[in-house]
């Protein structure tokens, strides 16, 4: 998201009839007067330059992982010390995005399926993730036991007995690759065998599970604001309803069922719908509308986040290449309680709202208590920060920033998105192995998504559109004006020249004159002058 790329896909675009849309008021959009050449570049349409870039973004997006390694497992499990962790990283991966199967609909939208693939980047890593090892919490054991917090005595005891029989330990020693991308866990294998509709995976890797939510989604965004139509005009501003490239539907729905969004069978919204339940109006982070306004808030959504993320305008600046940039950062109260931030009123799980600075995303992840925060518990309630040793929040180091070229809506380099993944463990029961973790928010790792350098092609296009074309068009206008004036002046001079040198052959100039014969002139005598003479 961070670099918030601009571009990618596989296969040619297709044209298709749009799905039936509920009748709603259409917002009038002022038509832009862009030159045809510029429209070919900046419009997302079949065959346009922007479509090619969007289909296969050339951005060099790097995902850096920082893992929290447990340094005192024995002392912690015996209850002698707080949980001590130390940050290990970065371990870098290059992200390659493709926006596939793009279908342009009759209602001014395009539907596509994004696909993200990650390849290890040893050059930007401190070591080899397949070799380096870390000591980390056993997420399946702790997550399932915490999930059963409100279940019966027999259910908790049964799970405790099974995990003990399988030899599940609360803290594991794994390679970075195993921890992030998958390893065989006996508990997961058994759960997958007996509860396949719930645990639909045979191996477990925390990052692999998160990334899986970002792939195979069917997304619809608006590309023609003149055809904008929304049934949520009471929740979305007029600007949000007509904004170019905003999400209209995610997997066929304008809202998130995980947070209570519901529709009637014929697709109509309910009166109980809240704005925090909607993804409509947000952006997927690959492209933003042209002519962005200052002091505005942009909303991003990726399925891995489980909820929209709001970024507020902080400043207008210029990048190292000299491009104007609008800079946005995550709000300090992004993960605040509903009392402090009403935008979060939807995001409480089972009636329990998370503490300040935390966001429970369990509804998107098998009801496992996965919790998001900013890195090192930045802006988290101090009481949470005090439960773990090794957290060092720093606003400069751990804040996110998104940089967008406001005239074209193109994401710029130097953008970075930082988010931390934690495990929010409740009051586990009847399992002595998990008891030391009771009521802890355990930091697992944090992610930094960056765009290190603006691609040469994007740099060229930005330079061409922002600096070269406007000047070239103005110069061309004056040149055409001068050429037009020169042609008019030349035509006038030629006319004067030829009219001076070409005289009628019947006339010549002579020194002799003769009276005009009165017989051939029928002018009344009172007007006739006998002294009038003409050339012979």
Automatic annotation (TrEMBL):
Cellular component GO terms held in the UniProt record: cytoplasm; plasma membrane
The keyword rRNA-binding is annotated on this UniProt entry: no
Compartmental location: Cell membrane
A molecular function (GO) term: scavenger receptor activity
Alphabetized Pfam families for the sequence: CD36
InterPro entries associated with the record: CD36_fam
Keywords: Cell membrane, Glycoprotein, Membrane, Transmembrane, Transmembrane helix
Domain of life: Eukaryota
Listed transmembrane segments: 454-472, 478-498
PANTHER family attached to this UniProt entry: FI07620P, SCAVENGER RECEPTOR CLASS B TYPE-1 SR-B1
Family: Belongs to the CD36 family.
Name of the protein described by the UniProt record: Scavenger receptor class B member 1
Species the sequence originates in: Aromia moschata
Source organism phylogeny: Eukaryota, Metazoa, Ecdysozoa, Arthropoda, Hexapoda
């Amino acid at each position: 998201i961070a670099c918030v790329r601009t571009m990618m896909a596989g296969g040619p675009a297709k044209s298709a009839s749009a799905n039936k849309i509920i009748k709603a008021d259409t917002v009038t959009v002022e038509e832009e007067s862009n030159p045809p050449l510029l429209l070919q570049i900046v419009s997302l349409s079949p065959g346009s330059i922007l479509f090619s870039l969007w289909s296969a973004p050339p951005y060099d997006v790097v995902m850096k992982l920082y893992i929290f390694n447990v340094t005192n497992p024995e002392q912690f499990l015996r209850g002698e010390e707080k949980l001590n962790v130390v940050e290990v990283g970065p371990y870098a991966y290059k992200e390659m995005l493709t926006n596939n199967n793009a279908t342009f609909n009759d209602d001014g939208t395009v539907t596509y399926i994004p696909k993200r693939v990650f390849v290890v980047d040893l050059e930007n890593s401190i070591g080899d993730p397949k070799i380096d090892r870390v000591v980390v919490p056993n997420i399946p054991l702790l997550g399932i036991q915490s999930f059963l917090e409100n279940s019966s005595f027999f259910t908790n005891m049964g799970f405790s007995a099974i995990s003990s029989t399988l030899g599940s330990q609360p803290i594991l020693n794994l390679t970075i690759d195993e921890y992030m991308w998958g390893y065989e866990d006996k508990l997961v294998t058994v759960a997958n065998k007996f509860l396949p509709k719930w645990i639909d995976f045979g191996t477990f890797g925390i990052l692999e599970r998160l990334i899986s939510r970002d792939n195979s989604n069917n997304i619809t965004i608006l590309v023609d604001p003149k055809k904008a139509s929304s049934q949520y005009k009471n929740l979305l501003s007029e600007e949000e309803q007509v904004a170019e490239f905003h999400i209209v539907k995610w997997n066929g729905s304008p809202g998130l069922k995980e947070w209570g969004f519901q529709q009637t069978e014929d697709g109509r919204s309910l009166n109980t719908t809240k704005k925090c339940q909607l993804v409509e109006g947000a952006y997927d982070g690959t492209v933003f509308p042209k002519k962005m306004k200052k002091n505005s808030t942009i909303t991003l959504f990726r399925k891995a986040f489980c909820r929209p993320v709001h970024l507020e305008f902080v400043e207008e600046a210029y990048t190292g290449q000299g491009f104007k940039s609008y800079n946005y950062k995550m709000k300090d109260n992004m993960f605040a309680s509903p009392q402090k931030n009403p935008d979060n009123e939807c995001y409480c799980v089972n009636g329990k709202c998370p503490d300040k600075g935390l966001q429970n995303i369990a509804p998107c992840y098998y009801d496992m208590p996965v919790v998001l925060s900013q890195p090192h518990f930045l802006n988290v309630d101090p009481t949470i920060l005090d439960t773990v040793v090794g957290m060092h929040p720093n606003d400069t180091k751990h804040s996110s920033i998104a940089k967008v070229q406001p005239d074209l809506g193109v994401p710029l380099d130097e953008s970075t998105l930082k988010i931390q993944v934690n495990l929010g463990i409740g009051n586990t029961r009847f399992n002595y192995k998990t008891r030391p973790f009771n009521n802890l928010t355990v930091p697992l790792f944090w992610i930094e998504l960056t765009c290190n350098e603006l691609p040469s092609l994007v740099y060229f296009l930005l330079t061409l559109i922002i600096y070269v074309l406007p000047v070239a068009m103005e110069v061309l206008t004056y040149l055409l004006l001068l050429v037009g004036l020169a042609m008019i002046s030349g035509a006038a001079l030629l006319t004067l020249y030829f009219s001076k040198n070409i005289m009628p052959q019947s006339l010549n100039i002579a020194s002799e004159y003769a009276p005009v014969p009165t017989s051939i002139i029928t002018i009344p005598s009172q007007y006739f002058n006998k002294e009038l003479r003409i050339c012979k």
